[in-house]
Amino acid sequence: MSEQDDPIADAIKNISDGREIDWPALDARIDSESQRAFIAELKIVAAVAALARGSSNSHNTLTETAQLEPSSTPPLVWGPLKILERVGAGSFGEVYRAWDSRLDRQVALKLLRQRSSNPDSLPSSIIEEGRLLARVRHPHVVTVHGAERIADTIGIWTEFIEGRSLADIVATDGPLEPSEVARIGVTLCQALSAVHDAGLLHRDIKPHNVMREPNGRIVLMDFGTGADRAFIHERCAVAGTPLFLAPEVLEGSDATIRSDVYSLGASLYFMVTGRHPVSACTLDELREAHRQPHPATVRDLLPECPQTLSETLERVLSPDPSERYDSPAALEVALQAALHPAQPDGGARTSVRLVAGMLIGLLVAVAAVASSSWTRSPAVGLAFEARDWVLMMPFENRTGDTAYEGTLDAAVQRELTSSRFVNVVGRERIDDALKLMMRKPGEALDVRTAREVALRDGGIRAILNGQLEAHKGRLRLTVRVVDPSTGGEVRSITQEAEEARSFANAARQLSNRVRETLGESPALIQESNHKLEKVRTPSLEALRLYSASYQMATDATSPTWAGAHELVQKALESDPDFPAARIWHAWTTYNLAPRRPAAESRAAAARALDVIDDASDWERHWIRGSYHYLREEWPEAVREYEALRVLYPEHAWAAVNLFFCYRILQRSAEAVPLTEAMAALRPNDVVATRRAIFALGETGQLGRASSYVERLQRLIRNREQEHAADANLIRFFPIHQAVARRDATTAARHLDQLALNGAAWPMPAAVRQSFLRSLVHANLSLGKLGDAKHAAASMSTEPERRVWLARIAVIKGELAEARQLIEPVSVRGLVDTGAVGNVAHAIGLMVESGSVGKAKREWQAWMRLLSEDARVGGILPSVGSVTTISTHAHLMLAQGHRDEAMRLFREALAGSAEHPAIRYRVALRLAELLVEDGHRKEAAKLLNEALADRYLRMSPAYFPFIPAQLTLADIHRQLGDETAALTLETELSEILAEADVDHPIAREIRLRRSSGLAKRQ
Amino acid sequence: MSPDDAGAECAELDATVYLLRQAQNGDQEALNRLVARYLPRLQRWATGRLPNWARDLCDTQDLVQETVVRAFRKIEGFEHRGEGSLQAYLRQVLMNRIREELRRVGRRPVTEAFDDAYPSDEASPLEQAIGRQGLERYEQALQRLKAHDREAIVTRIELGCSFEEVAVALGRPTANAARSAVNRALVHLIEEMRNVRTG
């Protein structure tokens, strides 16, 4: 074979270069078996390469630093510079680290792509600006070395700044101290003044464009290139720039000195609060938000921010430019004033405040103690009822002793756990709400955020915050109960502890009073206290470590079992007999990676059993249940977890574990209500909601399911692309409901709408395939063969397309066409293209369309694959599965082995509880055979049972019930039960009301009804 | 530092070596820069390797970040022969971590019976595309390759680096030399895959 005609070498080059390969054309060029084998493997490698190239299904998280796909390969050299590596990208172009041989140093090179779609861009002015910028020499402005246009790319190179942007710093370390922000502000004002003095505007000031070098130097960089109005319009809030733009610029005005000052102020606001002064998700929303009155007071978010700084920021962020400072210099003066207030010594003031605070505090404490003795009343106005949720914000540790960090939190949480009246919201649930709010999960909460979380969640009726203070060995514990709807403090509760030893007791008293405030009856509180008195109190240190460990593993942002494991081990070192910690240790061991031997976690669970007497009532069930679960003793685990859930329904882990136990034990009926309970525990979690929908739908509770469908819709709003499969579920739901009611007209109407609009909705390929499949199913269940064919023909995955077209042909009775369609389909081919779900269906079609020989050959190929290739076992239906048995049965029947077929059909029927589509088909065949043998009654009974759930299940995929139902009607008629036959036929005529005229069964039903009417007349 | 060809590449490599050393000594900044360099590609790679149901349970971004950070911290035993070997090493660490994650989650039987609407639930995007057996054959063959072949495949085919970047990673003089290396590696890979099938 000559070099030119080496198809394999060509293919290799294409894969290497990242080009698509025309497989059919390639196939045509090869002739040897070994080449074919080579190509087969090549396809796999090509798929891996394609994945790396293509866009992934990654979530479109709202981050400030938008990462773009790498564009074309970067040049090695650009003009006088040698490119070393790419360091960043934006929508404007890319940034590289490069070497300037003339300056003999590293530089940052920004290459701007010519955006031909943008008529407003003025490339030559960028160069001009670059040159002007080069004249600005200021210690806090990035030094521009040069700007050049080469071919159609413009490059600007500047000094290379090491360090982090202030956006990164705030993102990782949190907001900065007000004084530091003021100092940075002063620096930036000076820098900006220098820029303005050179006759330029920055235009794009934001925390991402301010760097802090390792030595602390602040540098302003990344000047907005070009007065691109289109540039602004292109971006949405994802990239972050519009969030710092002055409102008048958003509305279309030119940038000015005052708009630069606004952006600087907005950046400072961000640095000190961690928030944007105005935020939104789209440009339009942002403009609207700017137009609304928004008292963006810094002190709302940061009470300890000095007045002067807060007022300065408020002024600089005025929507009206004329109200702002008219230059960076003016702002600088204001910031300097904030840094050096003309007031008595800060230190002295602080100490005076502290003393006064404590005096007042003592008074409050005394009053509180006094009041608690005669007014044990729940808070007025707070709409808290039994089983409502309370959000605990982290308590401040103002003792100055880090040993107390988190102790009050852990103690109060533990106390509240023993209350059946009050439930504490877990971190996961908070994160669900944060995600809905487009915030980062795991974010630390302030009161404003906590209120919003409460509002979004819907079930949170109170917020707790507070602090722990120390004075001369005495501890003061304070909790404030806040009403989320008003943000107002409902009650402030303080408890004193004489010394560290009585801390636990004080925490209990405090928690009791919180419970009363929320409305729990004193009697119930006393009762639970009594119960807890018998329970060993763990050491405070151990409790704190255990709580932190528990939190860490439940923390959705980064569930680090390794970290949790370390913490709980420390807890056990501090208090070896702490039952809850012992069982938790078993779980952390279980979840470690790399996997530890099962014996380790089981031994840890056994150790928990040893101290079970020291545990509270629900803890005992938790320990026993977990002990059994870890030993895979499922029925015993179920018993304990069910008991636990009676006492403590909100235990999230117990719910999840129990769910898995039910599934393992195939007790699906009990799993269903559990999915609703889990959805209630996390009302903003997409997965829990979806699970509930399917569980309810599968058991015919579509009415109940619809409320979850509404919730799902709300949860994925604005994120449909990310949740494309869920979006489809919502779209198809009205159809499921209509089919269940046999309301063919409504179902057909919805279906037509979906088919029409479906092409426009963005979906990943796999989801689109599923969408089309659902369209096919739904149309088939209504007898709309033409529309089903249309949907199937639109499928892009080849084998499956043929399979569905063949199925439709068989339904229409066009067997020759079906044979032709199914001819090229093979098990090998289905496996190679990953379409294994169609194997049984395809072979069934071969049988039904009359290609029995082919069916037999493919069946053998399937069996051979299962026995020879162990890796296939995971994806092809295995020998013992219902799918396989049923296919085998059909094949046996087609080959004339009647008895064997009947045996296999019975076997398949027995195992098909969870597979309705198979069940209906199998029951039909079996009934036909029984009728042939004269056993009509048995056939009727069998079919009746098998079809019992035909309108209950939430999926028109189960359309095979239609021929089965017709046959059942026939059998009833033969048995003389005309009423039963008529009922079934009427039902069929309802569901097939919109069927194609030439649908065989619809036609048959029409004939029967008209002849039946004739008979009666 | 001299800015000629070899020099610039040495500068590049040294930077990584330098950063690695600094990271091991606890320099957070160095660690951040290393992580920033490799993270986006590895995240994209990982997304293709995790099925949807596992992604719900553990955020891919955090999984990758956590793994990469830890890998850099514990990198003492790693012989840094070049960028390519580092990338291949990271990829392997990540692959192992993903496997663990799947096994851990897999212990809880996720028998969600609604495969109809969620075909991708059981398999990762890559598995969907080529089937589990094909994927396993690919993985086995990849491990059997010589180190330089494996690095070529990992950097170019899996992580999608440009040929210039691959050249630097593999220590080749030019992009074209890198391309040839990748092509050779592909041939070896496929031969090895066939060996896995029959062997």
Compact summary:
The complex is a heterodimer of chains A (1017) and B (199). Chain A has 1017 residues and is α+β, with helices and mostly antiparallel strands.
List the helices and strands and how they pair.
The complex is a heterodimer of chains A (1017) and B (199).
Chain A: H1 7-17, H2 23-29, H3 33-53, E1 77-78, E2 81-89, E3 93-100, E4 105-113, H4 123-133, E5 144-150, E6 153-159, E7 164-165, H5 166-173, H6 178-197, E8 210-212, E9 218-220, H7 229-234, H8 247-250, H9 257-273, H10 283-291, H11 298-301, H12 307-316, H13 328-339, H14 346-374, E10 388-392, E11 396-397, H15 407-417, E12 422-424, H16 427-436, H17 447-457, E13 460-471, E14 474-482, E15 489-497, H18 503-518, H19 522-533, H20 540-554, H21 561-574, H22 579-590, H23 598-610, H24 617-630, H25 634-647, H26 652-664, H27 668-681, H28 686-698, H29 702-715, H30 724-740, H31 744-758, H32 765-781, H33 785-793, H34 798-812, H35 815-822, H36 827-832, H37 839-849, H38 852-868, H39 882-894, H40 898-910, H41 916-932, H42 936-946, H43 961-974, H44 978-991, H45 1000-1016
Parallel strand pairs in A: 10-12, 10-13, 11-13
Antiparallel strand pairs in A: 1-2, 2-3, 3-4, 4-6, 5-6, 7-8, 8-9, 13-14, 14-15
Helix pairs in contact in A: 1-3, 6-9, 6-13, 12-13, 15-18, 15-20, 16-17, 20-21, 20-22, 21-22, 22-23, 22-24, 23-24, 24-25, 25-26, 26-27, 27-28, 28-29, 29-30, 30-31, 30-32, 31-32, 32-33, 33-34, 34-35, 34-37, 35-37, 37-38, 37-39, 39-40, 40-41, 41-42, 41-43, 42-43, 43-44, 44-45
Chain B: H1 5-24, H2 28-49, H3 52-57, H4 60-73, H5 83-106, H6 125-130, H7 132-144, H8 147-158, H9 163-170, H10 175-198
Helix pairs in contact in B: 1-2, 2-4, 2-5, 4-5, 5-8, 5-9, 7-10, 8-9, 8-10, 9-10
